[in-house]
Amino acid sequence: MIAPARSMAGRAGAAAGVALALALTGSACAVIPLGGNPASYREIVKGDPLRKPYVRVVAVPPRPEWTPKQVVTGFLSAMASVDDPGYTVARQYLYGAAAQTWRPDGTVTVYDKGVLGNAPPPPKDATETGIMLKGMITGTIDPEGKYRAVEGAEDTLKDFRLVKTPQGWRIKDFPDGLLLTEDDIRRSYRPVKLYYLDHLQKSLVVDQVRVRVDPSSDFAETMLQRLLRGPTSGLKSAVSNALPAGTRLLGISTEDDKIIVNLNEAATNAISTGPDRDAVSAMAAQIGWTLDQLTERWDVEIRVNGEPYYQDGGALRVGFDRYGSFDQWLNPGRTATYFFDKGALHSLNQEGEPSPVPGVAGHPGADHTEPAVSGGARPVLATLTKGGSAIATAPLAEGSHWEQRITGTNLTRPSWDRYDNIWTVDRVGPRASRVLRFDGKTQTKVSAPGLESVEVRDMRVARDGVRLAAVVTTDTGTEVQVSTITVNGSETTIADPEPLVTAVEGQQIVDIAWQDSTTLLVLTGSKAGKEVLAVDVTDGTSESIKADARITSITALADRILAGAEDTGDDEPELLYLDPVKQTWTPLTKTPATTPLLPLD
Amino acid sequence: MTLPKAKDAKDAKAKAKPKDKRKPPARKPKRRTPAQIARGVRRRARRAAGKVRRFWRRSLQLRVVTSTLVISVVVVAVLGFFLMQQITTTIVNGRAASAVTDALADRATIVAQLNQTAEGPEATGAIGGEPGQSAVNSPIDRAANALANRAGDSSRYSVIIRNESLPGEYRATNDIQPRSISAKMRADLRDRQINDTLWQPTSLYYYGKSQPEPGLVIGVKVEGGYEIYHFIPLTEEEQTLQDLRQMLVVVGIGLVVLLAAIASLVTRQVVTPVRLARQAAERLAAGQLEERLKVRGEDDLARLAHSFNEMAANLALKIHQLEELSQVQRQFVSDVSHELRTPLTTVRMAADLLYEAREDFDPAAARSAELMQNQLERFESMLADLLEISRYDAGAATLDIDSVDIRDVVLRAVADSEALGEKQGIRFDLRLPSEPCMADIDSRRVERILRNLLFNAIEHGEGRDVVVTVGADRDAVAVAVRDHGVGLRPGEENLVFDRFWRADPSRARTIGGTGLGLAISREDAMLHGGWLQAWGSPGEGSQFRLSLPRVAGAELRGSPLSLVPPEIEMRRTWRGQATPALPPPASSSAPAQAPAPVDAMDGGAH
Question: Which segments show compositional bias classed as Low complexity (chain B) (predicted)?
Answer without folding.
Answer: 587-597
